[in-house]
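pasting input
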Amino acid sequence: MYDLANPDRFDRFARAATPIAAAGALLLLVAGLYLALFGSPADYQQGESVRIMYVHVPAAWMALMCYSSMAVASVVGFIWKHPLADVAAKATAPIGASFTFLALVTGSLWGKPMWGTWWAWDARLTSVLILFFMYLGYMAAWSAFEDKSRAARIAAIICIVGFINVPIIKFSVDWWNSLHQPASVFRADGPSIHSSMLTPLLLMGLAYTLIFTALLFISMRAELAERRIARLEAAARAPSEVKVA
Amino acid sequence: MTKRSRRILLIGALLGVTSIATLLVLTALKQSVAYFYTPSDLAKLAKKPAGLLRLGGLVATGSVKFAEGGDATVNFTISDEFATTPVTYRGVLPDLFREGQGVVVQGRLNPEGVVVASEVLAKHDENYMPREVADALKKQGRWKDGEKTP
C-alpha cells in the first residue's frame, strides 16, 4: 500500500488494473441489469416501476462514496502534502458529480410515477442537490488558481467543510418528515428488501464501484501525465529564459 | 509546533467549527426542514398556518369517499397514530393512492379545519418485496393492510 504512494509505481499498477476493473464492471453490469430488468419480480406496491431502483440507488451510494473518498484524500493531501492524494481527490470529483447527476435524474423519473411529482423540496432531495453543487464548486476551485499547490489547498478545505453534508444526506430521511422513504439496505435492523431484489441491487452496486475504479485510474493517470508534461516543459523553457535574461 | 501538526490542528478546528455551526443551523431550521406536518403536529399548533401547508400521514381506512356526480372530488382523512385531519381534493390521484397508504397533500386549511388540497403525493415505504410474498404474509395473518410491514 505504501509502495503505491509513489506516482510511478501507482502508474504501473493502475495501467495493469484498469482493464481488469473495466472487464469486471462490464460483466457485473450485464448480469446486474439482466437480473434487474428480467430476472427479478415486480414490487407488491410499485409494480414494474421498482426497476428504476436498480440504477438509482447504486448511483446515490456512489455519490456519497465518491465524496467521502474525496474528503479522505483531501485530508491526506492537505496534512501530508502528498501529491498523489491531491490527484486522487481531483480525479474523483467529476466522476462523483456524474453519479450524483444520475441519481438526481433517475430519482426524478422514479418520483413522477410513484409520488406524483418530478421534484419536491424535501430534505433528502435538497441535500443531494446541494451535494451536486458542492462537486461543481470543488471542481471550480481547482480551475480557479494557476498555482497547483494553492488550488489543491483551497479545494481540500472546501471539500472537507462540505463533508458535513454527507451524514445529513444519509440521515435526512430519519431526522425529518420527508417524501423520500427511509433506507432499505443500510439500516440497523437489516435490509427491508426481499432477497430476489437485493441480489441485483448489490450486483449493480459492485458494477458501479468497478466503473468508478476504472474511471478513477484512467483520469488519475491522465492528470499525472499532464503534470509530468508541465514539469518537462518548464524545464525545457528554463535555459532559454536564462539566455534572454 | 511543526507545520504538519499545525495543519492537523487546522483541519480539526475546521471540522469542529463546521459541525457546530451546522448543528445550530439545523436545530434552528428543525420545523421548516420537515417536508410536511403530521395531523398531531397540526393539532398541537396554537396558531394554525394561514398559507399553503403540507400534511402527511396514512389515508385512514374506510375514509375515502368520492363525491357524487363524478366531478373528481374526493374526501378522505389523513391519520397518524394520535390524530386525524380531514382533506378534500379535486383532481387526479397518484397510482399509489389508496386506503392505508402514506400520502402528502399540499393545500390550505379552511375555517372548518379541513385541508383543501391542491396536490396529493403518494409516499411509499422502504419495504420492497414481490407481490406473492406480500400476499403470503397477509394470508398467514402476519401483516394486515394499513399496518406497518413486518
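fyi Chain A is about 75% helix and 0% strand.
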